[in-house]
Design goal:
There is one protein chain. By secondary structure, this protein is of the alpha+beta class. It is built from three helices and ten strands, in the order ααββββββββββα. The strands form two sheets. Strands 1, 2, 3, 4, 5, 6, 9 and 10 form an eight-stranded antiparallel β-sheet that branches. β9 and β10 form a beta hairpin. The chain is elongated and about 100 Å long. The protein starts with a helix and ends with a helix.
Length: 193
């Protein structure tokens, strides 16, 4: 090879290398990607707020009354969210029901007390409990079959499914039985009157 060909090959290789190390183009791509990700998160937040506005007709959540009777069952675990009953993807976000959190559930003769550190606590009176079942998913969370305790309750004119997962999943069956028995006794008492 002649020195001129070697020099041309070296210049061509140098030009290609210079294009690869262009920091201006890389910075522009990184900034563009960051702006795109921020825009997507902004759209998701707007969707969450819009869903909350659509559900603004949902009444305020009741607070636990003072002097609750002795508890039947108690568990600690996770609250995974609430949906419209029977529609496991229709998440309810109004009044903080869409916020996942730790949970301490207490079932008494008066109802279900839901204490959520870092989120809004609420109370479901016994007369509003409609039943419980084991399920595998609720909006945004899918588990193994029977890995989720789903409690159905009435709030205003809406039936709501709330999903809970105990730290000890073996407790779920006892909760389903206790809530369904409570529901049957309430329905029977109402029929006798």
């Amino acid at each position: 090879m002649t020195p001129a060909v070697i020099q041309l090959a070296a210049e061509a290789a140098e030009r290609q290398s210079a294009e690869v190390t262009s920091f201006g183009a890389r910075i522009a791509w990184v900034i563009g990607l960051a702006v795109f990700i921020a825009f997507v998160y902004w759209l998701m937040r707007q969707g969450w707020k819009w869903r909350g506005a659509l559900q603004s007709d949902l009444p305020e959540l009741p607070a636990a009354p003072d002097g609750l009777p002795e508890h039947r069952l108690a568990l600690t675990g996770r609250y995974h969210g609430s949906t419209t009953a029977g529609q496991w993807l229709d998440r309810i976000v109004a009044h903080g029901l869409g916020v996942r959190s730790r949970v301490e559930l207490t079932l008494t003769d008066a109802g279900l007390d839901v204490v959520r550190p870092g989120a809004t606590d609420f109370f479901v009176p016994a007369a509003q409990l409609r039943g419980a079942r084991l399920d595998k998913g609720i909006a945004g969370k899918v588990l193994t079959e029977g890995g989720l305790l789903v409690v159905t309750w009435a709030h205003g004119d809406k039936l709501i499914d709330s999903g809970f997962r105990s730290d000890r999943a073996a407790e779920h069956a006892a909760w389903v039985e206790a809530i369904n028995l409570m529901n049957q006794s309430i329905t029977t008492e109402g029929a006798e009157r």
